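Sequence in, structure out. Go.
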Amino acid sequence: MQASTIYIRQLGIADYETVWAAMSDFTRQRDEHTADEIWVVEHPPVFTQGQAGKPEHLLAVDDIPLVQSDRGGQVTYHGPGQLVVYPLLNLRRLKLGVRDLVTLLEQSLIELLANYGIKANAKPDAPGVYVDGAKIASLGLRVRRGCSFHGLALNVAMDLSPFAQINPCGYQGLAMVDMSRLMPKAPPFAEVGHKLTSILVQKLGDKTGIIPAAQHSVG
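Output:
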């Protein structure tokens, strides 16, 4: 079997548009030899509207910035206490389709949450991960020249009230939940990020037959 390296970059708290520009540049400049990367970040408060976004899903967006993004999907919210993970992967090299990646991300989230005693599920007609009908994680991807960017957002321990200013992911009245509301105590944010990236790397190996070696890099 092949061996591969996936660099895990911990970006800390970083502006959405800055990170978006950086991952767009990375994807545009990479070639067939560029190693895959997974970026882990927490964004200051921001609404992001996907390419398919419709204005009627913006209910009262006035006190938080709104960014028109090039990812798939409708509108969502990012803020403190939400773990955002961007898998920058050469899907062609990994022999993965977009649906394969969506399923892999959902399964990784479901396994992570199970480790914390939270039973979650995916829905075939609505990408993301849910707990008793409430959404705990959202997905929005873009693929350029066979390479993915954008990714997933997992609600760990956050103020969920901004979601009331939108129809999350285009669904009116969709309830949102985070890990802290489903556990006696919110888990450490960094621990959740480490566990999720470890599961994601393992599942990439299981799916593709490539054995990834995760190299951690800060900044």
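Check: The mean pLDDT is 88. Residues 16 and 151 are 13 Å apart (CA to CA).
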